[in-house]
Write a structure and sequence with these properties.
It is a single chain. By secondary structure, this protein is mainly alpha-helical. The protein has one domain (about 5-145). Helices cover about 70% and strands about 5% of the residues. Helix 1 packs parallel to helix 6, helix 3 (about 65-75) packs across helix 4 and helix 4 (about 75-90) crosses helix 5 (about 90-105). The mean pLDDT is about 90.
Length: about 150
Amino acid sequence: MTKKIKNNKKILEKEIENLWKALCLIRDDFECQYCGSTLDLQVHHIISRKNKNTKFDIENGITLCKKCHTKISVNPNSRIEFLIWYIKKFGIEKLEDLEKKGREVKQYTISELEDIKNNFIKQYTLALTVLTNGLRKTMKSKKKEDL
């Protein structure tokens, strides 16, 4: 792989990662799924981002505040507590499916990455449309209340 192609692939992966984060935040209503905070939000990979096969899987992301994210990333006991909470909330099957998928070896081609990016852009555009329409309805209701 030439240096130019490698750089293009890295740029594309970063763009996908940013879209992935945005989609996870939107799905999780911009709220830490662990403690409920809406401050300093980040998106955590349940299965390590080193696993290429789950790196851009929306189901492998969960919104956490910086405090919770740091806590479960640094402290092994907190990581275990988080996984127990995750299993209670989402089920053992979901975690096992992610773990199984994460064990599969995957190297994305540029074409596959472009497909992922285009799919994420479509999802993001749809999500923004839904959010915008919801905001418009809320503002219309608020105006009627003010009258």
